[in-house]
Design a protein that fits this description.
Blueprint: H1 2-45, H2 60-64, H3 69-76, H4 78-109, H5 116-128, H6 131-141, H7 148-155, H8 167-195, H9 199-207, H10 212-240, H11 244-249, H12 261-270, H13 275-303
Helix pairs in contact: 1-13, 4-8, 4-10, 5-8, 8-10, 10-13, 12-13
C-alpha cells in the first residue's frame, strides 16, 4: 500500500514538474497583476496616503501609517450604513425583477418559431451597448422636462415623476435601466439551460395531461435551478459593484439617494484623494461580497437541483 502511494506521489510530482514551465508565465502574470496589487491595497488601507505622494518610498510607513483607523472611521460612521442601505435597496429591487424578466425572455425565446433567432439577437443588443452610451441615452429619456418617458405618460394624461431628481424615484429608475441592460445576458444563460432540458420530460407530462403552466412550474423551473443559481451569484456580485450608471445618471444624488459602495470608493480615491480610506472601503466591500456569496453557496443545497 505504501509503495503504491509513493509511486502515485512521484507520478504527481513528475506531472507537476512537466507542467510547471507552461504555468510559469500565467503564475508570473497572476503575481504581478493580481496578487501584488491586492497586497499593496491592504498596506494602503492602513495608511492615510493621498494618492499623490510617492508610494512606499523610504519612510513612507512612518509618515502615513495609521493602523485600522480607516476601518474604524468607516464602520462607525453613518455614511457607510446609508450607502450599504442604498446598495441593498438596489439589490432587493433589481434581482427579483431581473430574474423574472430574464426567465420570461428565455421561456419565450426557447420556443421553436420562425424568426426566433432574430429576436434573440435583438434582446442581446443592449448587452453589447456601452454603459456610458446607454446611461446618457436613458438620462435624456428620463428627463423630467424634456424626456420621452414623461412625454408618453403625459400623452395618456398622467404626470410623470422626476425620475432622476426625486429621492423616491432615482433608485427605481437606476434599477429599470440596469434590468434593461442585463436581461439579455442573463436571459441567454437561462435560455441555454432551458434548451438543455431533456424533451422527454415534457412529452411524458403532456401525455399525463399537464398544461403549459404546470410543465413550467414542475419541470422547467426545478431543472433550471443550476442556471438560476449561477445567475443569482453573478447578479448579486454585479449589484454590489454598481457604478457606471450611477456616476453618469445621478452622480450619487439626489441628496445621496443613489450613493453606493463603488461610487464612494471612486470618489474618495480619485476626487477627494483619500486613497487609504478608499482602499479600506474596498476591502470592506470585498468582505461583504464574500459573506453573501458564502451564504448563497451554503443555501444552494436547499433549492438547487442538479439531477437531470
Amino acid at each position: 500500500m505504501k509503495s503504491e502511494k509513493s509511486r502515485e506521489r512521484r507520478r504527481n510530482e513528475r506531472s507537476f514538474l512537466s507542467a510547471s514551465p507552461f504555468l510559469t508565465a500565467s503564475l508570473i502574470g497572476f503575481a504581478i497583476f493580481y496578487f501584488a496589487p491586492m497586497v499593496i491595497s491592504v498596506v494602503i488601507s492602513l495608511t492615510d496616503w493621498n494618492g499623490l505622494d510617492r508610494l512606499l518610498a523610504p519612510g513612507f510607513m512612518e509618515e502615513h501609517f495609521i493602523g485600522l483607523d480607516n476601518y474604524k472611521a468607516i464602520l462607525t460612521g453613518a455614511e457607510f450604513w446609508k450607502v450599504l442601505k442604498n446598495t441593498l435597496v438596489y439589490i432587493v429591487l433589481y434581482i427579483p425583477l431581473m430574474l423574472t424578466t430574464s426567465t420570461a425572455i428565455a421561456a419565450l425565446l426557447s420556443r421553436q418559431r420562425r424568426g426566433v433567432g432574430a429576436f434573440r439577437v435583438l434582446y442581446y443588443i443592449p448587452v453589447l451597448t456601452s454603459w456610458v452610451a446607454a446611461s446618457l441615452i436613458w438620462k435624456s429619456l428620463l428627463s423630467p422636462q424634456y424626456g420621452a418617458m414623461n412625454g408618453i405618460l403625459a400623452f395618456f394624461g398622467m404626470e410623470g415623476p422626476g425620475w432622476l431628481t426625486d429621492e423616491k424615484w432615482a433608485m427605481p429608475a437606476i434599477v429599470l435601466v440596469s434590468v434593461w441592460k442585463d436581461m439579455g445576458f442573463f436571459g441567454l444563460i437561462l435560455l441555454s439551460g432551458m434548451i438543455g432540458i431533456d424533451r422527454t420530460y415534457y412529452e411524458a407530462a403532456e401525455i399525463d395531461g399537464a398544461g403549459s403552466w404546470t410543465r413550467f412550474l414542475k419541470i422547467t423551473l426545478p431543472l433550471l435551478t443550476p442556471a438560476l443559481f449561477y445567475v443569482l451569484i453573478v447578479s448579486l456580485i454585479n449589484s454590489f459593484q454598481l457604478f457606471p450608471q450611477i456616476m453618469i445618471m445621478t452622480d450619487g444624488g439626489p441628496n445621496g439617494a443613489t450613493q453606493v459602495m463603488m461610487e464612494r470608493i471612486y470618489k474618495y480615491g480619485f476626487r477627494y484623494y483619500r486613497m487609504g480610506y478608499a482602499s479600506a472601503f474596498s476591502w470592506i466591500l470585498f468582505i461583504v461580497i464574500m459573506i453573501c456569496t458564502a451564504v448563497q453557496m451554503r443555501g444552494q443545497k436547499r433549492w438547487v437541483n442538479y439531477d437531470t
